[in-house]
Amino acid sequence: MPTGDADFIRAYLTESVEALTAFQSEPAYRQTMTAMADSIVTALRAGRKLLIAGNGGSAGDSQHIAGEFISRLMYDRAPLAAIALTVDTSVITATGNDYGYEHIFERQILGLGQTGDVFLGISTSGKSPNIIRAFDASRDRGLISIGFCGAVGGPMRDRCRHLLEAPSGKTAIIQQIHIVAAHIVCALVERAMFPRDAA
User: Can you list the alpha helix ranges (DSSP code H) found in 78-170?
Assistant: First the structure.
């Protein structure tokens, strides 16, 4: 192992634990996750769906989250309507080529979104242009906007009904908090939608 690697690992794990501890200890995060879950439950009970988008690692998180809703998280139950807007390469490349990369999620929201749907936009920086445009399209189409970002919410703050700002400025740590939050939100939705199974 190269000199300094052990120190790097120790420092990284310490920073990760500190961020998770801050996330665990702040009541506002619990309130935000509960509010996000409530919004999703309301939409699903009305026959609507959850749409999710992000870039890079957040694109992977979008697919991960959709998988938890469609398949299962904590226990067996019926599938819940969720779509990751990061998976259709033909739509993404056509839109990127014809209109520009900043439109790849906006066009899908305008084409697939319905009033009462929920859009979860994920951006560690809080300012990804294609996520911001998707939030604006969601507003125009009557979707409920919720978001995950880092410690500096940026323009997402004015566009989300509920925004979870992970207590870190480092992308990798932010993403760790995001997937923990996503699992909690999904679990809360499961418990509300299928309370008998939750017991």
Answer: 89-98, 106-112, 129-141
Q: How far is it, in rounded angstroms, from Cα 81 to Cα 68?
A: 10
Q: CA–CA separation, 105 vs 87, rounded Å? A: 11
Bridging pattern class, strands 144-149 and 118-123: parallel
Structure-token pair, residue 128 = 């990804």
Domains of the chain: 5-198 (3.40.50.10490)
Whether 199 shows a pLDDT value over 80: the answer reads: no
Reported confidence tier of residue 1, pLDDT bands at 50, 70, 90: low
Rounded to 5 degrees, φ, ψ at 164 are -105, 115
Measured distance CA(39)–CA(33) in Å, rounded: 10
- Amino acid identity for residue 52 in this structure: I
Partners of 53 in the beta sheet? 121
Kindly report the pTM of this predicted structure.
0.95
Q: Residues of 137-157 as b/e, b for ≥16 C-beta within 10 angstroms? A: bbeebebbbbbbbbbebbbbe
C-beta atoms surrounding 100 within 10 Å: 13
